[in-house]
Write a structure and sequence with these properties.
Blueprint: E1 4-11, E2 22-26, H1 32-40, H2 42-50, E3 55-57, H3 66-73, E4 108-114, E5 117-124, H4 131-145
Parallel strand pairs: 2-3
Antiparallel strand pairs: 1-5, 2-4, 4-5
Helix pairs in contact: 2-4
Length: 146
């Protein structure tokens, strides 16, 4: 096992548009090797999470209109609250309660937003061969926590 997973709570100002089954990839920087591995395995990762009725979202490849999602899940938020044109892996950083953390958020999966707290599962797959085992372990841990 070459991967590492650490779960922490992160305080946000609002992420009301998340549902309990949503799992989003987020990072403050861009790790080219990791992102290439995710893109290469994206369909398998999505299937892996879907087996447990979890929705995995890799934001640079979202093909959904976030305004529609927000209107449905949090209709009290103003239209245009989330900038669809900039909906990327750093979008969650705009909602951090402690903005000083904005430049220090390592790659993680964000899920389970309750009372302005989200769980962040920080991970490092080690190398390319560790990506799928790492995501399977992440899925199992997230599913066990909901």
């Amino acid at each position: 096992m070459e991967y590492k997973i650490i779960r922490k709570k992160i305080r946000y100002t609002t992420l009301d548009f998340l549902s309990a089954n949503d799992v989003f990839f987020a990072e403050s920087g861009y790790k080219p090797a990791l992102n290439r591995c995710i893109i290469k395995n994206l369909e398998n990762i999505k299937k892996l999470f879907y087996e447990y009725e979890l929705n995995f979202y890799y934001m640079p490849y979202l093909d959904i209109d976030m305004d529609e999602v927000i209107a449905y899940r949090a209709p009290y938020l103003q239209p245009g609250t989330v900038n669809n044109k900039r909906w990327a892996s750093d979008t969650f950083l705009d909602y951090l309660a402690r903005p000083e953390l904005r430049h220090r958020l390592p790659p993680c999966l964000i899920t389970q937003y309750i009372d302005n707290i989200a769980y962040a599962y920080f991970f490092s797959p080690g190398n390319e061969s560790g990506v799928m085992p790492c995501f399977e372990a992440l899925r199992n841990e997230i599913y066990g926590d909901i």
